[in-house]
Amino acid sequence: MTQDEARKVFLEELLKVAPDLESDEIGADDHIQDDLELDSMDVLNLVAALHARLGVDIPEQEYVEIATPALAAAYLSRRLAA
């Protein structure tokens, strides 16, 4: 999976967890908690949704790797390539 594909999947799942967000207003470096205001339960739901869709386990200590869409795209594409 390319980083562009991974970013698209991440944003799709993010918008399901936080439907009040607008995809065109989410920047590549927007932090999902600090900038987009997801709470810890939203983050857990996002991780679960990514796992269900992609089959990728994201350990809690690696949540920082999906803290922004750009980081998430790189992380997910790297994990899916392994």
Automatic annotation (TrEMBL):
Superkingdom of origin organism: Bacteria
InterPro entries: ACP-like_sf, PP-bd_ACP
Pfam families, alphabetized: PP-binding
Carrier domain sequence ranges: 1-80
Protein name according to UniProt: Acyl carrier protein
